[in-house]
Design goal:
This protein is mainly alpha-helical. It is about 70% helix and about 0% strand. Helix 3 crosses helix 5, helix 5 runs antiparallel to helix 6 (about 85-95) and helix 6 (about 85-95) packs antiparallel against helix 8 (about 120-135).
Length: about 160
Amino acid sequence: MKQYLEKLKVDNKKEIYELIIDELWDKCEDGRYIDRLNEVEKPLIISQIIQDNINGGGINSFFYNNANSLISQGLVVFQKIGLTKVDDIFQKAIEIYPAKTIPDDLEECRKILEDLPEDNEVDEEWYKLSDEFYQLGEYILNQNLLYVTENIEQF
């Protein structure tokens, strides 16, 4: 990882970050074996999985496809990496979830969402939060690179 950071410049931050993430993806076989990562690497990949899910369809899609397996981890890793703005959005999204608790069973989670009327406040609020999240791209990139830089000896 050091070799990537040595090449880091203002105009290639995204490229350098992608190289770092690609190495971690390879190491954990695209997230199937996260336990192969150390305690400093895991938060970056878990955060990336959540971000990819939100970027791929919004917070609504995240809750429909992955919520049960990533909620508690997301709350921890965003803080660990220093993504406090993302953590705030994530916590608001959890608070809006239409049940008191988010079920561990993904099918139960989906059923709750599928039972919502087509036009509903939950979706509207999640769309707004998704838009807020999409505006944070540069902030997320900078925080992720700062996290890597601060912990480079453990990568």
